[in-house]
Amino acid sequence: MKPSFRFRSAAIRSVAAFLLALAAAFTAPLPTKAAAKPSAAPVTLRVAYIPILPMAQLYVIEGKGWAKAAGLDLELTRFSSGPAMVQALASGRFDVAYVGIGPALVAAAHGVDLKVLAATVVDQAGLIGRGAFAATFLKAPNAAAAFAEFHRASGRPVRLATLPPGSVPDAILRYYLFQVAHVKPADVAILAMGAAQMQQALLSRSVDGASVLKPIPAIVEARDPTARILVRSNQMMNDAPAAVLAVRASSLARHPAAIRALVDLHVRATRFIRRHPDAAAGYIQAAIGNGLVAKRIILASLKSALATYAADPHKIFAPTARLQAYLEKLGALKKPVDLKTLFDTRLYDAAAAQKP
């Protein structure tokens, strides 16, 4: 029997509106010691997430019924992108976020007292191209020449879709284009949109490519024979951090045992995904496939990403510092965030020390 999920619609505002509206900070102190066991009554944790493959641990936790068994009632709300969910986090609507590290940094820089407790994956954003752009790219001597040649031949810049400014795919795309490949800004137009809109734009051929997260590349490649992965994530920014499990500090203070239980389950789910991808694919399909994405596509995307699933927050600390420096250069961050304050590894360290 397929697992069931409860979703609520989420209001989405522009990043610009968010930057003007965000003001509230949550500063409740962290507990010095978590309770030994969760309370007998289920604890409700309001969880914001994006329905993409990097959040696979959440789908496994819910699909296998681990949350309920641990005394947790996870109330799930989906968003189209990380920047779209940040204002809701600041308003106090959610306790937990499965969110990109980029939006987590933006939120923290604007006073939201988030704590990053665990990683989900690294090296997840890739550049996919389609149509004439993909053909031009594969023949060109380098990326900059490919963009320039497409512009010359078509009379317009390459149109690339990505998630909104402040997101990991957007930051990594810009880092690759302008710091690694040295593409001329005039040769590319970057279009911000949600994940579902990005997939639709690729399939409707209204864009030439995108900086995307799995499983979108596999879905597009299955339906468009001209589509190709042109640049892999580790070629765009090596060891690029992707998504994280983050909580509001005030929620951690209110529900220390519940949050600790969630981190335990997150680590357990990471191990399960790596060891049992076929079974994990079923839970992922039920959560994000909406009956429209074949399990074989989910499984292919998952298997290609197995090596990148890592819950260890220590692994992404240094790459996050590099990403933050570039976000600050882009103007997506008002000021740098103290990563030693943002990252709280205590619960992960305790979970990782337990026997599998």
Molecular structure report:
With 356 residues, this protein is an alpha/beta fold. The chain has two domains: 7-122 and 241-352, Periplasmic binding protein-like II (D-Maltodextrin-Binding Protein, domain 2), CATH 3.40.190.10; 126-236, D-Maltodextrin-Binding Protein, domain 2 (3-Layer(aba) Sandwich), CATH 3.40.190. Helix content is 47%, strand content 15%. It has 18 helices and eleven strands. Strands 1-3-2-4-11-5 form a six-stranded mixed sheet, with helices on both faces. It has a five-stranded mixed sheet with strand order 8-7-9-6-10. Helix 9 runs parallel beside helix 10 (216-223) and helix 10 crosses helix 15 (295-305). The longest helix is centred in the C-terminal third of the chain and has 20 residues, at 256-275. It is globular. The model is unreliable at 1-36 (pLDDT under 50).
How many domain modules?
A: 2
Q: Order the strands across the largest sheet as they lie in space.
A: 1-3-2-4-11-5
CATH topology of the largest domain: D-Maltodextrin-Binding Protein, domain 2
CATH homolog superfamily of the largest domain: Periplasmic binding protein-like II
